[in-house]
Design a protein that fits this description.
Layout: E1 2-11, H1 15-26, E2 31-35, H2 42-46, H3 48-63, H4 67-70, H5 82-105, E3 112-114, E4 117-119, E5 124-127, E6 131-140, E7 144-146, E8 159-160, H6 162-165, E9 174-178, H7 182-193, E10 197-201, H8 213-224, E11 228-230, E12 235-240, E13 243-249, E14 255-260, E15 262-265, E16 269-271, E17 305-307, H9 318-334, E18 347-350, E19 355-359, H10 362-366, E20 371-377, H11 382-386, E21 393-399, E22 405-412, H12 415-427, H13 432-436, H14 446-459, H15 464-469
Parallel strand pairs: 1-2, 1-6, 2-3, 6-17, 8-15, 9-10, 9-15, 10-11
Antiparallel strand pairs: 4-5, 5-6, 7-16, 12-13, 13-14, 18-19, 19-22, 20-21, 21-22
């Protein structure tokens, strides 16, 4: 049995774990990075980057569908070379992973430990088969994994998750996507545009992260016009030789049966806490086994344990994981002098076409708060029509009375850029009146944002002096 000690033990070498390790070292503490699985972070290996590598050729192939409306002609048909597409996805994916691995390899060997960690007490860990680590504080940054109904395991190799898609050497003929959330929508639309026969099934009517009823209706209409999308499906799946048999009720109420090469499970993710033996700690945990924690400090109760990144299932996004890792690592290093860290304005983006974006928690965060909604449709927005990307809506939410920007939801062109402007404005505590004083060029999609801001401003109960100032 090998024994070692450190100031801060970090479990998990993903985005949050690496940030926590670096923060602890920057604070002048000894730190040990413990990883039992693969390196490379979820984003680089199976998340943000490989999915965008698949979306990019899909958007290129789809662009030709607008040619006729522009008065352009293309002789012949676009042919998708599935092997070439997937070869580039894997090649570039490996390149991104390589950059992360270089960073891990640069960490001194004395600061790295290979093996899965499990708690023996709040500050003592067993790693692998024969190492015990005593630490002053511990950061849990073990990430998350795809979750799906246990019965689907009977599908065998016909069941895939996003991790598996990026290992394909060719595109399949058909895929049934279950779960029209962020992953399901992005991959489903991309595969459809690359010539794969795709149908997307959901439960409960949701589309991506949207919560505004009007935007949900718009999203169902827009995406449903491009590919089969049933957001509240009645469907059963089973294995049928080398395929998946899906029995479902179509919009007319008729039962149908259809076979697909694969079922892509995009039905959520579960925090990776199963190996940690948290029962041996003093921590209170929720029904999923995740420790209760303070999102401003990332501390679990009063224990010298901090939880950061996707494992806490708070805001499972790369930039949030990096921020949380820094906060957790810094607080673990300074424990018991724990302090609130910088939490940025909430921002989420879905890279579909049209894009979806949520700022400040969107409609769900303001539902019970007195507010007004500024609205714009992109159907007739100037620059959007010029580009033939005039689909979707933008809703801006402002506090009734004060006009403070609360957040936004949007489905439309360049949503990734509009969302950044709104997130910056929210973090700076700007009001709708403040934002309307800022410049808007012509003709740009941002003019649509100005329209929504003007609409919100007109609905606010502000004094005459405040209106003149705006």
């Amino acid at each position: 049995m090998h024994k070692t000690s450190t100031d801060v033990a970090v479990i998990g070498a993903g985005t949050a774990g690496l940030a926590a390790y670096r923060a602890a070292k920057a604070a002048g503490r000894r730190a040990l990075l413990i990883e039992g699985g693969v390196h490379g972070t979820t984003c680089a290996r199976v998340g943000c980057m490989p999915s965008k590598l698949l979306i990019a050729p899909a958007e290129a192939a789809h662009a030709v569908e607008r040619f006729d409306a522009f008065g352009l002609r293309l002789d012949g048909r676009i042919e998708v070379d599935g092997r070439a597409v997937m070869a580039r996805v894997r090649r570039e994916r490996d390149r991104f992973v390589g950059f992360v691995n270089q960073g891990v390899d640069a960490i001194p060997a004395s600061d790295r430990l290979t093996g899965y960690a499990r708690f023996l007490t709040d500050t003592r860990l067993a790693v692998g088969d024969g190492t015990t680590v005593d630490a002053r504080a511990v950061v849990i940054a073990t990430g998350s994994s795809p979750a799906y109904p246990a019965a689907w395991k009977a599908l065998g190799d016909r069941l895939v998750v996003n991790d598996d898609v990026f290992e394909w050497t060719d595109l399949p003929e058909s895929v049934a996507v279950f779960g029209p959330g962020v992953i399901g929508l992005e991959l489903g639309q991309a595969l459809h545009r690359l010539g794969v026969r795709v149908k997307v099934f959901g439960r409960g009517g949701g589309v991506g992260p949207l919560s505004d009823p009007e935007l949900l209706d718009e999203a169902r209409r827009v995406f449903g016009a491009e590919f089969y999308l049933d957001t509240d499906a009645q469907a059963e799946v089973s294995r049928d030789d080398a395929q998946v048999l899906v029995r479902y009720r179509d919009p007319t109420g008729e039962m149908r049966s259809e076979r697909f090469d694969f079922l892509l499970a995009a039905t959520g993710r579960r925090p990776n806490v199963g190996r940690l033996n948290l029962e041996a700690t003093s921590l209170l945990r929720d029904a999923r086994g995740v420790p209760h924690f303070d999102r401003e400090t990332l501390q679990c109760g009063s224990a010298p344990i901090f939880v950061a990144g996707d494992v806490n299932d708070d805001v499972p996004l790369l930039h949030e994981a990096a921020d949380e890792g820094r906060i957790a690592g810094d607080n673990a290093a300074r424990f018991p002098d724990v302090r609130a860290g910088l939490r940025r304005a909430a921002l989420g983006i879905v890279f579909t076409d049209p894009q979806i974006a949520i700022v400040g928690g969107g409609h769900a965060a303001v539902r019970d708060v007195p507010h007004v909604t500024g609205v714009v449709s992109f159907d007739d927005q100037g620059r959007s029509r010029v580009m033939l990307k005039n689909r979707g809506r933008l809703h801006v939410y402002a506090a009734a009375g004060t006009g403070a920007l609360l957040g936004a939801e949007m489905l439309g062109p360049d949503a990734e850029h509009l969302a950044h402007l709104l997130a910056w404005a929210k973090q700076l505590d700007l009001t709708i009146a403040d934002m309307l004083k800022l410049p808007f060029y012509h003709p740009v999609v941002e003019e649509g944002l100005r329209t929504a801001l003007r609409d919100a401003f007109g609905k606010l109960d502000l004094s005459k002096s405040a209106r003149r100032a705006a």
